[in-house]
Design brief:
heterodimer, A: 318 residues, alpha+beta, four-stranded mixed sheet, two-stranded antiparallel ribbon, 15 helices, elongated, B: 378 residues, alpha/beta, eight-stranded mixed sheet, five-stranded mixed sheet, 14 helices, 16 strands
Chain lengths: 318, 378
Amino acid sequence: MILPSPKQALISCTLSEIDFLDRSFPFSYGSLPENLSTSIRHVGILTPPLLMTGPRGYVIVCGRRRLEAARKVFGEKHEINAFLVAEDEQTGHLFALAFWDNLAQRSFNLVEKADILVCLEALFEKAEMQSEFLPALEIPAKNRFIERYRAISGLPESSRSLLAQGKMDGETVDLLKSWQPDEIEQLIDLLDGMSFNRNKLKEIVKLFDDLAGRDRKTPAEIFSLIREHYPDCLESAAALRRQLDNWMFPFLSEAENRFQELCRSLQLAENLRLIPPPSFEGNAYTLQISFRNFNQWQAACDQVAAIEAEKIHELFSR
Amino acid sequence: MSFSPVKPLFQPEQVLVEQDAFHYPYTHEILKRLPNIPVVTIERPNQSTFLQLQYNPVKTLLLMVHRGKFFKPCPGTAESYRCCLYKILHLALGCSIGCRYCVLQGYLNNPFITQFVNLEDAFRELDEVIDGAPEGFFRIGTGEFTDSLFMDSLTGLSPKLVTYFAGKKNAVLELKTKSIAIDNLLHYDGPIGETIVSWSLNARTVVDREEGRAPALEERLKAASRCRARGYRIGLHFDPLIFFPGWEEEYAATVRMIFDFLKPDDIIWISIGSFRFMPPMKEMIKENHPGSRIIYQEFIRGLDGKMRYFSAIRRKMYQHLLAEMRRYAPEVFVYFCMEHDSMWDDVFGYAPKDNQELSHWLDQCCYRYQELTADSTR
């Protein structure tokens, strides 16, 4: 069914008359694409945004990014044309209009999806959510996923920002669901200045979560212990992860260290590599030989033949 | 030894009965034991998601017809770890004991505790398999997707199984349980063949914290001793071993306690396996049992994709447990459930060369196997 167009009138207003803080229609979150600002600078806003009357100024129904770009380029006093919807229009109707209009133009990031989902749930019946909106948002109609998006909607801004930038993923949100908001803020503080991608972040969060679970502490207590006892590891994400690994996996770390020591004592040439079984599970070690000519092959074989048997026995002594 | 009446571990508040299930006498037999419980007839229950919105899975018994295979190989991950080639008789699904580590939380797509009622079909299928391979030997259990006895007072299943297996020379039945619902087994006056009743045991802290409504260790071992007195052979399973502060002393205490109730000769076998789970189960345990700490340990992804303790931890636990067992019962056959050859070597000093050999070792523990092989060489 095609939604009826809202009753609307074309008006002129300055950007200062718009309440940018109102997020009743939260269709955009995150930084503006540079090319949008460039376009606005050259041609202004071609399609008038849709506004409604609100208590502190006009509320943006549709066109937030265009308006934000115009404010950034031209300043608050810039005048624009906009459609103002009639005051008796239903919010649900307007929300649905704005939803389908936005969806036609771009895909939503995780935070936008989450904020939209929460609004939709308040405005529409479950059946309509399942048949129309969830498929459009590409959110599986399973509790696990819906809970994840609800959690995103309530996360502190620092972590929402990471999500919008693609530096955090949904599985990390699942881990953070049981954390307090201030613990999440502390985590982001702790990681400030470190370079990490979303997989590294997930591993770090998982390690903090596991350590807190194992030692019956809160994540905040684990952060304090890290700051107090291992301040050096806060220099980089890799160092932090290494430290957390050592702490969470003492037996495995010891085995890894022992193996590295043994490899060093073997003094293998660069083209020889001894590889342990993954996580030292089982006893299938691999010796990898790389060679480009017969001489390299021969040298590698000679070196292998010269390895002391005792050293290899050491691999299997536990 | 005094024994008070056993409170059932499962008391359904309603029974869902699939329409077709009414054709089977076993359905009526079970319903007779639940005289005041509302019965709801349903069509073929392939809409379990919908049904669980209407009926609380924890308080509902589902009686239905099983249309697939009853006889299955144990879902061991045979390639990477040694598997004893156990066979499963699939007669029921689910359990109300509520162990926090239970693999069934992530395994079943049917949320209801379910009893299959077409036993005739099950026995027919078993006949085909067992009688069809007279030279073969089968160790068969019912406790893989359920606890073998937890609702036996409602289903009265155990005597039927014991009767059936008593008549089979090349098969033994193992009933694995944490419950103490042994009345049917004790009062059964027919031949029991070589039926094995097995108890899952653990450290006291694990029993108290992680095993839901399961009876205490002493009660399980008392029940084992009564079953032994009635002539059943007794199996014991330390699976899953859980790593926690104080595990050494607590597992030693459990081993000590075994021999307060049983003699070494009473025990046909003891299996040991460490806690392992498919990765998605971590989230399920976290969500279903927020107070449980068992998922926060030094787990690695094993060769079969399951999470398990790092090998050094497993080795340490196994060596300790085995040493304790050997103090009391040097001759009892102890084996690993799903462990690597290298772990067998490290702990036992030997390893089965393949799954067949491990299976053969377990078969040899059974008198019936000895008789069978003696007959064939005569």
